[in-house]
Amino acid sequence: MAATPLLELRGIDKSFGPVQVLHDVGLSVYPGEVTALVGDNGAGKSTLVKCISGIYPIDGGTVTFEGNEVAIHSPRDASALGIEVVYQDLALCDNLDIVQNMFLGREKTSGIVLDEATMEEMAGETLRSLSVRTVKSLRQLVASLSGGQRQTVAIAKAVLWNSRVVILDEPTAALGVAQTAQVLELVRRLADNGLGVVLISHNMNDVFAVSDRIAALYLGRMAAQVKASDVTHSQIVELITGGRSGNLGLPAEKPSEFIDITPGEAQ
């Protein structure tokens, strides 16, 4: 596992008027790893992702990318760094084909004409690099794709632009068993290709199937960030529902300190 995070957040605060949603949150995302971001509804997961992606400005704290402190003021800033987010609604256009969706807003042109050949070649190369074999034609309308295929296209769109960190918001929420397995395999492959992946999920089976680390938010505070191999389902559920796990000895009162727990360290 890499020693230096690709993306690191320290002491992130975010308020909306008098309501403070994030309190001194820290998070580390490493290259070649899947970090699961878990928490109950209202824990602050969506707000944290929108701060990372530049939709919301942070009120306090620092963000470092590849070891350098950065300021992210807009989604364009995040994309320029190599941070891409695949939201739960996927943001795909049913009336466009796969290539058109992957290049939507970033079309390649030759003079004043769309360079369809280059876009199709790049789209095909990206899907092949992810070992995607479920798409019959790059010119299929997205409306004709299954849920798993749509998720695949959305993920491929995110990695098309030399992304370094990909954040996936509930990628298997509306999928069946076979399609879920297909998407989880793709998530794991992203990390194996050297990207830092953040997986937001309520499904603990999915989390433990592909994650290297698990970061648990509780009421806007980071309860803990632990190695997935060192914790159980029940311990993570305790962190999600109570902000602490008695077996790990991690108090919710110290949210800014996320620790890699190794066997023998639990109190």
TrEMBL record:
This is Monosaccharide ABC transporter ATP-binding protein (CUT2 family). The keyword Nucleotide-binding applies. GO terms for molecular function: ATP binding; ATP hydrolysis activity. Keywords: ATP-binding, Nucleotide-binding. The keyword ATP-binding applies. CDD domains: ABC_Carb_Monos_I. Residues 7-244 form the ABC transporter domain. PROSITE patterns: ABC_TRANSPORTER_2 (PS50893). InterPro entries: AAA+_ATPase, ABC_carbohydrate_import_ATPase, ABC_transporter-like_ATP-bd, P-loop_NTPase.
